[in-house]
Design goal:
The chain is α/β, with parallel strands linked by helices and 215 residues long. Helix content is 56%, strand content 11%. The chain has 9 helices and 5 strands. The chain has a 5-stranded parallel beta sheet with strand order 2-1-3-4-5, sandwiched between helices. Helix 1 (3-13) packs across helix 4 (58-75) and helix 5 (102-113) packs across helix 9 (203-214). The chain starts with a helix and ends with a helix. The chain binds CO-5-methoxybenzimidazolylcobamide. CO-5-methoxybenzimidazolylcobamide (B1M) binds next to helix 3, helix 4, helix 5, strand 3 and strand 4. Methylcob(III)alamin binds at residues 97-101, 145, 203. Belongs to the vitamin-B12 dependent methionine synthase family. Residues 1-87 form the B12-binding N-terminal domain. Residues 87-215 form the B12-binding domain. This is Methionine synthase.
Amino acid sequence: LPLWERLEQRIIDGEAGGMEDDLQAALDDKSALEIVNDHLLAGMKTVGELFGSGQMQLPFVLKSAEVMKSAVAYLEPHMEKSDDDGKGRILLATVKGDVHDIGKNLVDIILSNNGYDVVNLGIKQPVNAILESAEQERADVIGMSGLLVKSTVIMKENLEEMNSRGISDKYPVLLGGAALTRSFVEQDLADIFDGEVRYAKDAFEGLSLMDAMMA
Ligand code: B1M
């Protein structure tokens, strides 16, 4: 296979052997972020389709996810970093009951490389942990990620909890993850939330929304 297809196929096959050589060769022609966006994410998309249609079993999805993570870790030092610093602080978490963190960690990388302080709490974070850390870490924004449909319900509950604690005005909220839609966030959730809640379809929209929220 040609290099670009091979990168994608290695993610689909969960095949780590030879990946670093291919990534290194790819860096001759494309930026690290282009490699992630144009090729590695395409592989993960196929994995999701195969899994969703019953053609791939969970342990193989896990292998693909591990190869994806190590590829991103390999590319990370090659990613462009701005000289900006101290633009604001975001607390990032995958919500309760959800283990998916590849997207959240990409958001972490993009924001960190572009001048934001990121406190990454990790996966399966209950609302109490998120809100307590936001307070302790003096976060400017709370970012929640979730990929399961049930995570969209959890996000709604978390916003309601912020309302009832009277802290919705204190923290603008950024939401992302494949199970969300723009209209669910910008209409349904915006309707029930007393503060500002925004939807980011990808890490780059997350960055521009952070820039807008911190302006
Ligand atoms: Co899971 N999984 N999974 N999985 N998995 C999905 C999400 C699923 C859609 C697959 C499918 O059926 N086609 C499906 C959910 C269905 C649903 O809820 N209706 C699913 C399922 C069912 C499950 C399990 C329940 C399976 C089981 O156990 N039977 C289980 C759930 C466990 C749990 O959470 N409690 C499970 C487990 C796993 C693995 C552990 C094997 C692995 C995760 C490994 C890991 O993350 N460490 C995994 C994977 C890899 C996937 C798919 C295939 C790929 C996800 C991914 O990493 N994509 C996924 C299929 C899919 O998403 N279509 C699937 C790449 C990543 C970069 O994209 O996270 O969307 P994403 O992030 C994007 C944007 O959404 C955005 O930026 C990123 C790009 O720039 N973004 C943000 C994300 N968060 C953001 C936050 C922001 C801003 C932007 O601001 C705060």
